[in-house]
Amino acid sequence: MSEFKELHLQALMNARWEEPDWQTLETTREGAWLLERHSMTERLKAHCRTLAVEVLGLHEIEQSALTENELSLLGEESCLVREVVLSGDGDAWLCARTLVPKSTLTEKEQDIADLGAVPLGQRVFNQANARRDAIEVATVVVEGQSLLARRSRLWVNEKPMLVSELFLPDAPVYQEEG
């Protein structure tokens, strides 16, 4: 799994994030996934019997390791980094990297650091005031294959997190619906 982790997480960290072309994307199958404002967990669950989460990594990084863009979206503080793969019925669908500022991990949100195999979206979107903003998209190339990615800021109880998601080759985003 370490080669997988290295390739896919590195691709996410090196992605060139851009504002989406909302008008064009909103009318496409891919756009429906990339512009999803609610729980990606729920959207993925609708395409499988079993959605599993494998934690690839959980560690802290200092604010000096964050990019200027990440700092502008989250504030200037150290973060917990959560790296996971979500799989539907045994097929890896999504590689995600979440930056959670230390100030987000207070009060009711302390448990976010200890989610383990619980999907972040399941935890966040159980809150009435959860929302997503600052959606950005990218196309990254992994082993010669172009893959879609998105980055967005999640808010829970007015506390931010930055989630980067890479749609892996077997993900439903690439399948014809029907």
TrEMBL record:
Where is it located?
Cytoplasm
Alphabetical UniProt keywords = Cytoplasm, Lyase, Pyruvate, Ubiquinone biosynthesis
- Signal peptide span per the entry? none
Instruction: Name the pathway.
Output: Cofactor biosynthesis; ubiquinone biosynthesis
**Catalysed reaction(s)?**
chorismate = 4-hydroxybenzoate + pyruvate
In its keyword annotation, does this UniProt entry include Transport?
no
Identify the SUPFAM superfamilies for this entry: Chorismate lyase-like
Gene3D superfamilies linked: Chorismate lyase-like
Q: Name one Pfam family in it.
A: Chor_lyase
Where substrate is bound, by residue? 40, 82, 120, 165
EC category name: lyase
Biological role stated in the UniProt entry? Removes the pyruvyl group from chorismate, with concomitant aromatization of the ring, to provide 4-hydroxybenzoate (4HB) for the ubiquinone pathway.
Q: Which family does it belong to?
A: Belongs to the UbiC family.
Annotated protein name in UniProt: Probable chorismate pyruvate-lyase
Q: Which organism is it from?
A: Grimontia celer
Taxonomic lineage of the native organism: Bacteria, Pseudomonadati, Pseudomonadota, Gammaproteobacteria, Vibrionales
- Provide the gene name from the record: ubiC
